[in-house]
Amino acid sequence: MQVLKMKRGLLWAWLIAMVVGGILVWGTAHDAAFYRDPIMQVTGVTTGKTTKETDDFHNVDSQTKQVLSGKILNGKYQGQHLTVSNVYSYSRAMDQKYHVGSQLFVVVHSRNGQSLTATAKDSKRDTTLVFMVWLVVALLLLIMQFSGFMAFLSVAANGVLFFLAIVLNGSTQGAQVLWIFGSLAVVFAALTLWLVIGANRQMLITFATTLGGTAFSIIVALLVFHVTHERGMYYESMQYVTQLPRPLFLAETLLGSLGAVMDESTDIISSLFALKRERPELSANQVFKSGRQIGSTIMGPLINVLFFIFVADTFPMAMLYLKNGNSWGYTFSMNMSMGVVQSLISGIGIVLAVPLASFLASRFMDKKKVTA
Amino acid sequence: MSTITVLGLVLLILMVLVGGKAGAQSFLALILNFGLLYLAIVLVAFHFSPLIVTLVVGMLVLALTIFMSSGDDLSSTVAFIASAVVLVVLVLLIVPVENWALVQGFGPEDSEDLEGLSVLVGIKFVQVTTATAILSTLGAIAEAAMAISAGLSEILEQHPQVSTTALLGDGIAVGKQIIGTTFNTLFFGFFGGFLALFIWFTGVHYSFGEILNDKIFVSEILMILFAMVSVILTVPITTWVMTRAVAGQRKRAAKQENN
């Protein structure tokens, strides 16, 4: 009976999640009224002729013209019909092919007589974004329940802090980027660990390890930069840079390694606390040894996580470089070298955190020892 | 020597000092993974299908990462099978979502970097972006699968007779412990990488609506969300594979006893 009740509760939870998801997706597909830029819904497409294109590197592509007819969904032109011409290529790296039902932002130029003239600007993407956010939150709550909620809460809280820091950085013209994100890292770590572990001794030790490991990795990196005169680092290859690249790069690296070091020290230290609870007779040295053992099995996979995040992102641009007749070495330098440096620095932080976590846990775990 | 070489050497020395032979192995796995990633890019540039290249490279990366880290046979095998299943499920999710989101290729923010480059290269960028999204989650899948299966095999060691239904509950419990910190690894990893982009958005005063529909922003956020989905799915899938493996082992043991 109890089991049946629980199963029915679960069924309801899944059902509610589905309905909420449906409402959200439907809602964002019909939210044009909230936008200031005019949005057009495509009701008809006529495809024009396709021309073959060959570039200097013998890459063969094609471009196709299409004429879209539809109506404006919002703003002062709401309900008016218009036609817009659009060109798309086979590869579609910078352009878009639209279908009946597509929603896109348009720029309206003028009104002459009955019809509007406008050009297509970009596709509307908020529906997909909302769908994926819903999917993550629903899965998290349904599978992980309360822990899932806490994980979501800590990510949301960090997201808000991150946004505030970026605004602060903007108001100082980026001069203080390293200080802002450095001190933010401290707040991030404290907040996250408090939400995940709670306010206790274990959290304090994990907090100290996280800060220590991250700080050490940055110090080692700066030393290596100094010795090698930053040879083979191409700051000009960083994307979207609007301020001094070097401090920005360090701030990016600092944030990137912070999460992984925190993850790792949480794992090591909570296992050691559990171990000590089960076998209180263990000496500090034995605890240190098992900490090192746990740490050395998880450090490799963790470095990998960051490596794939930092380097996989450069895939499209690196491929484009190769297709434009650049050598493998130049393609690496211009696209992947900074990501590799970032992964290596984070890796150093992750490895250094292992002995640090084991040491701090083995010495400061016992309350008595500290007071004595 | 270049900065990358020296940093790599420092990392190798530290990994060997801390982890011994296991540390050296993990370092080797990292280098091989880089080789595989670069190979994938070159193969796609030679017009091999991006999706097939990604699936093959993805499986190899998972195998390398999981089997080259220390761990007992049962937990490594379970972790690998589970992560392969997650990879396939993830592909089934990423392909339609990327086609729906229309975030392929490059955005207006990239125009400076694209100066002098021809973008009409005859390769479907929807597939390239899909491949990128899949590759960027590989590390997270392997890590989560290994953590869950190691946790479960430890429980099995301490209570060899635990029932498979109880094991299912244990798997979710282990997952609950790691989910909070794993999410933060992903959050900081990705946001660290996109810091420059977000600074750009505030510097150029994009409106909220513009950011929510921006090609690059949506594509990057989708990558984080895919990684999070993959980690969440890894928990029940790894647990399920582990219960199947244990049930199979017990069946074989029972048969042997009968004979």
UniProtKB/TrEMBL annotation, chain A:
Signal peptide: none
Name of a matching Pfam family: YibE_F
Regions that span the bilayer: 12-29, 129-146, 152-170, 177-197, 203-225, 302-321, 341-361
UniProt entry keywords in alphabetical sequence: Membrane, Transmembrane, Transmembrane helix
Domain of life, per lineage: Bacteria
InterPro entries xrefs: YibE_F
Protein name as it appears in the record: YibE/F family protein
Protein's organism: Levilactobacillus fujinensis
Lineage: Bacteria, Bacillati, Bacillota, Bacilli, Lactobacillales
Automatic annotation (TrEMBL), chain B:
Keyword Transmembrane helix: yes
Source domain of life: Bacteria
InterPro entries: UCP031503_TM, YibE_F
Transmembrane residue ranges: 34-67, 79-97, 117-142, 186-209, 221-242
UniProt keyword annotations, A-Z: Membrane, Transmembrane, Transmembrane helix
Keyword Transmembrane helix: yes
One Pfam family from the record: YibE_F
UniProt xrefs under PANTHER family: MEMBRANE PROTEIN, MEMBRANE PROTEIN-RELATED
Name under which the protein is recorded: YibE/F family protein
Lineage: Bacteria, Bacillati, Bacillota, Bacilli, Lactobacillales
